Amino acid sequence: MGDVSGVAYDALKMAVEHVLAKIREGKKLSIEDLFIIYLGTIVGDLKEIRADIARLDHRIDETNKRIDDVVKSLSARIDETNRRIDETNKRIDDLAKRVDELAKRIDAVQTTLLEIQKLLIELVKSRQ
User: Count of alpha carbons within 13 Å of 43, Cβ hemisphere only?
Assistant: First the structure.
């Protein structure tokens, strides 16, 4: 299809040059001549538009690549942060277990102290 449009463009270009030659010579232009000039301007505009679209497509592709890179980077940072959060949670769980064990030991010491206190009270009573 690209070859056909290239051939059509070349044919239109030759027709436009022919009409321009008529203008230079001061000849009267027919409706067909005016139509060819009009088509020539439209085709030129279309070529510019296609070039602009191609540039925009390229810029969009570059932007998408940059977005992909940022997403990949952010994803890696999020994964690292999640890993650190998991490690911190594990450390918190370990500390909570140690606190529970310490609380049990404190309870045991308090129980022992209460028993000692009772024994001391009984000892004091028995001596009186």
Answer: 18
For residue 1 the two structure tokens come to 């299809």
33 Cβ partners below 8 Å, 6+ apart? 19, 22
Q: Contact, 47 vs 67, CB < 8 A? A: no
Q: What is the four-CA torsion angle of 19, 23, 27, 33, rounded to 10 degrees?
A: 30
pTM assigned to the model = 0.52
For residue range 57-106, list pLDDT tens digits in order: 999 999 999 999 999 999 999 999 999 999 999 999 999 999 999 999 99
Distance CA 33, CA 55 (A): 33
3-state DSSP helix/strand/coil % of the chain, to nearest 5: 95, 0, 5
Cα(125)–Cα(117) distance, rounded to whole angstroms? 12
Tokens of 13: 């270009």
d(CA 124, CA 119): 9
3-state secondary structure of 128: coil
